[in-house]
Amino acid sequence: MAPKSRRQQSFMKIRPCSSIFTRIALGALLVMTVMASAQLAPSAAQAAQATLTWSAPTTYTDGSSLTSLNGYTVHTGTAPGSYTQHFTVGNLTSYTVSNLNDATKYYFSVSANDVAGNASAPSNEVAFTTPAPPPPAALYTLTASAGTGGTISPTGSIVVSQGTSQTFKIAPATGYQIAAVTVDGVSVGAVASYTFNNVAANHKIAATFAAAPAPAPAPTPGTTTATWQNQTIAPQTGSFSAIFDLTPSVLNINAIAGFSAVQAAGYTDVAALVRFNPTGTIDVRNGSTYTAKVALPYSAGKSYRLRMQVDVPNHRYDVYVTPAGGTETQIAAAYAFRTEQAAVTALNTFTRNTSTGTLQLQNLSVTSASAPMMSSALWQNRAIAPKTGTFTATFDTIPNAAKIDAITGFSAVAATSYSDVAAVVRFNNSGTIDVRNGSTYAAKVALPYSAGKSYRVRMVINIPYHRYDVYVTPAGGTETQIAAGYAFRTEQAAATALNNISLFAGTGSHQVLNLSLL
């Protein structure tokens, strides 16, 4: 019989044999019907073992019934018909012979006896060769090392068995980033983990690190003084959106910021403007006078976000103000350009001046208006200037119904499926706004939405780290952060640039307008 694994079972049949018992002492002859099989059941914890089974005899050879069977003796040895071990097993029809040597041929037989002491001759003989033990698994060494500026875990020499797997984790220290990871001298990229699968050889893995680039300095605010300051912008001849932050140095200053057709040298050159006035409120030029829908007070040292929607052909503009941590308030609706600029056809300069105190400017963004995007069951994509660092995207979005399923996001390619979109905001079908976080949608705050209501979304997207924050301001409401440090969609975890804004609606539809990218 061919050797088998110790974790398998082997079966051997003993053929029937006539007159397998002889008369002994005073007893009558016994007839043992047949040994049915010998079964091997190897054990990894000890030497091989063999399990033998047989059927019980029911008659003597003279045909009379056997009613006084007493038991059996199992015989075994390493030569045919020569048995060196004998096991009295009682009235059983199965017995396991244990502690057999590996890779050895054994011979087995069984005899029966009755209560009167009559015994049969040994049954027919079966042979079995115990399997050789499996060779020990080969061992291999995985050697891990890390340069200055980080760690690899586990480190040093790791001994593993053939066919196993081993994962190594690479982590940079504070102020460092992973520069490269090599396996057997070949780069596998700046990965944070690496797994050797089904090991069949020795390997070396090494990690190197480099000083992380210093974070980009915060933009230096422009300080407005009594000298007219002019900043050229792309000429605007249609409708456009301007967003910027202003911080007054003191209360009751007199400072303006706005748009002009020329490098302004006086107030009359500025067509559309916002003023921090000497009475302590923010107002807007409307034709020949300053006024405001709401007398919005300001405080020294506090930042105010200004949003101006300017319609050059019709010489009209709207103005919205959001105090830091506060709610957006509209303070001007369809106000007229300054009287002296009522016929201007283009605005190409951002202008500032203050006669009292100073005014700091940050985060100016001017975006030409484009047709609103409308989602549907077909993917809608619009190209944007490629983004590779950190940027802020701001837009207004309006769901057309309650409990729709519609997304707005940014992708590296013109999206044709959800998996193409890296950073995503969704109107979900449960009636709230959520955000993609790796492999799932989630939100810090379950912010409900309503059909036909406008929501201003602000997304701060860090492409190198594949993370983003999301803030939502319902029309007339307060800005709420619904995502902080959320991960790009899993399929886009390695994206290096975002080049498109992408829309899709599985149910219902929504509009996106007034997109601004900083």
Automatic annotation (TrEMBL):
SUPFAM superfamilies linked: Fibronectin type III (SSF49265)
Signal sequence annotation: 1-47
Short name of any one Pfam family annotated for the protein: fn3
InterPro entries xref list: FN3_dom (IPR003961), FN3_sf (IPR036116), Ig-like_fold (IPR013783)
CDD domains with a match to the protein in the record: FN3 (cd00063)
Protein name per its UniProtKB record: Fibronectin type-III domain-containing protein
Top-rank taxon: Bacteria
Residue span(s) of domain Fibronectin type-III: 36-133
Keywords recorded for this protein, A-Z: Signal
